[in-house]
Specification:
This is N-formylglutamate amidohydrolase. InterPro entries: N-FG_amidohydro. One of its GO terms (molecular function) is hydrolase activity. Keywords: Hydrolase. There is one protein chain. This protein is an alpha/beta fold and 283 residues long. The protein has one domain: Aminopeptidase (3-Layer(aba) Sandwich). 27% of the residues lie in helices and 16% in strands. The chain has seven helices and ten strands. The strands form two sheets. It has an eight-stranded mixed beta sheet. A two-stranded antiparallel sheet has the order 9-10.
Length: 283
């Protein structure tokens, strides 16, 4: 099983996430909100839920792939808590009435599908719980895990904008190979760049990332099927000096999803992502 990355000199926030600043921070913040693999006891998952199912929504190894960014001046924010515990790329009020007691209405489309800020389903579709959560439990979990992450992200984004006139968030994720593959068809794109259809960042940022990944021979798609989640939408305000782009890496590039171990392409993917990062942060 993969384990989250340990970074020397990083600042920890009560086990919720790792914040690692370089000696001379630049305008880039690299975030990996779904690479955490810690599951506190109060998760209370169903007793028959397998570990593979519990962890199936994790962006395993993404924290390791983006670690070189710190050496080029990017601030790193790496989740410690697993996505099944709390989804840091969701609106903190995106509660699922089917999971949480005492709520009216049907919630958002994502929550109704089982993937609100507190997911009801694992990444593979398995039910996470054998019971419903109380509203008090839900609010406490968001306060413990979601709020500190976004408070820290806000502080880093404002600090970068104050120093450089702009701040750039690169929100790194991974996608299951099946997510972009038609049944029986060839593998889908290797990378999906989400810039909210051109609205969340300077278009040149998207172009540079696309060129960088395509130079590796990787196939790149724009905004489909991932145009950028809640965090990209929240921070994608170029007119205010805040730029945000979401990157989805196909796990087939580097990860064995069944064994939950680095796949045969791991070393190549590490070198490739490091090259893209170095080129992106070169100026």
């Amino acid at each position: 099983m993969t384990q989250p990355l340990d970074i020397a000199g990083a600042e920890h926030d009560q086990g919720v996430f790792v914040l690692a600043r370089p000696d001379a921070p630049g305008r880039f913040i690299f975030a990996s909100p779904h690479s955490g693999a810690d599951y506190p006891a109060d998760l209370g998952a169903a007793a028959d839920l397998s570990e593979n199912s519990l962890r199936s929504a994790e962006d395993a190894l993404v924290d390791q792939l983006i670690a070189p960014g710190r050496g080029h001046g990017a601030v790193l924010m790496l989740a410690r808590l697993g996505r099944a515990y709390v989804d840091l790329n969701r609106d903190p009020a995106d509660f699922d009435p089917a999971l949480i007691e005492g709520l009216d209405g049907i919630g958002s489309a994502r929550a109704a599908a089982g993937y609100g800020v507190l997911p009801r389903l694992a990444g593979d579709g398995s039910p996470l719980y054998a019971r419903r959560l109380t509203l008090q439990e839900a609010r406490a979990r968001v306060a413990r895990a979601h709020a500190p992450w976004h408070a820290a992200l806000s502080a880093e984004m404002h600090a970068a904008r104050d120093r450089f006139g702009e701040a750039v968030l690169v929100d790194w994720h991974s996608m299951p190979a099946r997510a972009t593959q038609s049944p029986g068809g060839p593998r889908g794109p290797d990378v999906v760049l989400g810039d909210r259809h051109g609205s969340s960042c300077d278009p040149e940022l998207t172009r540079r990332l696309r060129r960088g990944f395509e130079a590796l021979g990787w196939r790149v798609a724009l905004n489909h099927p991932y145009a950028g989640g809640w965090t990209t939408q929240t921070w994608g305000r170029p007119e205010e000096g805040f730029h945000a782009v979401q990157i989805e890496l196909n796990r087939a590039l580097y990860f064995d999803e069944a064994a939950r171990l680095p796949g045969p392409g791991w070393a190549r993917a590490q070198k490739g992502v490091a090259r893209v990062i170095a080129d992106l942060l070169a100026d």
